[in-house]
Batch of 3 targets.
Target 1
Amino acid sequence: MSTYWTGKRVRLRGIEPEDWQASMRFDGHAQHQRSGDVLHPPRSAESYRVRAAEQAVANPVGDCFRLAIEALDGGEPVGGISTHEADPRAGRFAYGIGVGADHQRRGYASEAVVLLLRFMFGERRYHKCEASVYAFNDASLALHRSLGFVEEGRLRDHEFFAGRHHDVVRFGMTAPEFAERHSLGEL
């Protein structure tokens, strides 16, 4: 059975309490943490359990929500995707994605992004999606360019970690740009 949230490789779904183990595994890779966020101190298994349990019962706030990315070939969580800064008046939102180091380069991220954008543009009437990527994250820069995002600017020396400041590249994609490259779906 196919649903709106299922592609050829992944399914986007709500976070479940048992996802805590995958989150803990993903955070075990310092380079992975730094590619999308900053390095965090170690946390207890219990803190991962509590956080996953809280997210499993959390209701979305407007159009801001978090979803797990589940691989269809095995059914395990391989990452997460979320929307934030959703502004229905202006018609724009931002999103973030993370795929575990062991699951990268398999097309999971690109498919998850397309599924999410299809929903936000085609069902929620948003006009523009924005994304921020660290300038050193070549894989994420390439992903966004391949999906059709346009580089709109660079925030110089914007974030500090690993002993120095790093640039952040800002990307944007409008609904018409998305529809030109990717289907908005069918009834």
Target 2
Amino acid sequence: MADLSHLVGGDLFVGPGGRLSLVAGSEATQQRVLRRLLTSRGSYIWQPAYGAGLPGLVGQVASQQQVSAIIKTQMTLEPSVLSSPEPVVRVTVGTLGDISAVISYSEAETGLTETVSLSTGV
């Protein structure tokens, strides 16, 4: 099933003819993963437990292991990501508390390994 195409922090995409763009498959999964990881817990009123809140960790004392555990836990909650094999998460926490992550996971629809990167800068 197709979703409206939307990257976190941006507007909906408008396609040819002025219609809202749709996204499906692995691209939709990437958008869902980024939305889940970058949404603050409690900010989505229909699902208060939704979101990892990674931007809220910027400037906090957080280890690579803590951030990696948060990401892995959230990835298991995303229906479009397979739980086996387990997602592989590589996290870097900068000296100012900025967080970068590269996440490899298997997409549920295709079974193919996909990679998504994110960075929460200071």
Target 3
Amino acid sequence: MNQSYTRTVNPTVKLIVSLILTLLVGFGAGFATATSINSWYSTLDKPFFNPPNWLFAPVWTILYILMGVAFYFVWKLPETTQRNIALFVFVLQLAVNGIWSLIFFNQHQIGWALVDISILWVMIIITMYLFTQLSKIAAWLLYPYLLWVSFATVLNFSIWQLN
């Protein structure tokens, strides 16, 4: 007998998976950063507006949590092509986010990191646009992320210029 059924995932499980997904990327980025923060990074010339090193971890942790909740708000919606595309773009931008730390802190490629973060900025805008079509709350949860990445882009550019 062939029965068709829709497999559903408990909303609580979706929330937990959403948070784990984003926080794992954050953990990976943090690990990549930690290897150079007190060595290579400390030798770079930085602009006057460079925040203290201790600020980055709590800010990024909050941002990854907000991103996870935004992802959850879209994922919990009924499955549609539009929703699936939005989730795919979100995951893609999350990967670009994680790659930045590897390029900047592990490879010490400030210019290529600037290219990556510029692509990330555009992808965040696209993600927010797609999320707005599905969940305005999800899109709004990404605004702090966009603002921080905007600041980080200026900071990356300034460090590239100074070094």
